[in-house]
Amino acid sequence: MIKIIHIKSLLLCFALYSVGCQDQDSKTPLPINEEIAALKTLVQKNDYLEKIYQADQDIRDGKSSELILKYGLDSPEVLSFNSEMDSIDRLNLKKVEFYLKEFGYPSTDSVTREAAMAPWIVIHHSTDVDKRKRFFTDLFQAYNDGFINTDQFELYLGRTYKLEFGTYPFGEGAYDPIEKINGLIEALNLKK
């Protein structure tokens, strides 16, 4: 009986030692909700959003075009690249979703240009129409607050329309961007 208790004590000590000795600075990523909860200062929030923006842009550095020209559109190399880009886009979208729920859209006068653009550009790059629509309220508020401009908001709505209906909603001749935005909101059945 003493040996069993002794063995259990040794196993418990080993388990506690192992947990206590884990490197807190390891490369193992935190779950997204913990990453967001750890953002306490404006500098931390800015840096977090800048990293998301950089990840979004780094994968889009022209490599896709090079691979298509070298190997062909349906090649394993291009398909692998697209899969990698989709993975990064999905992860960034989850991060943006958690960020917006916790902090709202970043103010352009409190963060860098890249940090302020991160949520919009990540949402814009999503090809999932339902998810794009789910972010409408956040982007519409950011547009109304002046944190994203008319061109960005119109581009987001236009691409959402194209993904849903298969065509891009260009009209003949000159148009008023505000009228086009209102028309796209109506056509996409989005609530202001």
Q: Keywords for this structure?
A:
192 residues; mainly alpha; globular; 70% helix
Topology:
Layout: H1 2-20, H2 32-37, H3 42-58, H4 63-71, H5 76-103, H6 113-125, H7 129-134, H8 136-145, H9 150-165, H10 177-187
In short:
By secondary structure, this protein is mostly helical.
Structural write-up:
This protein is mainly α and 192 residues long. It has one domain. It is 70% helix and 0% strand. It has helices at residues 2-20, 32-37, 42-58, 63-71, 76-103, 113-125, 129-134, 136-145, 150-165, 177-187. Helix 9 runs parallel beside helix 10 (177-187). Residues 1-26 have low confidence and may be disordered.
Overall pLDDT confidence: 85
Poorly predicted regions are 1-26
Intertermini distance: 71 Å
Q: Percentage of helical residues?
A: over 70%
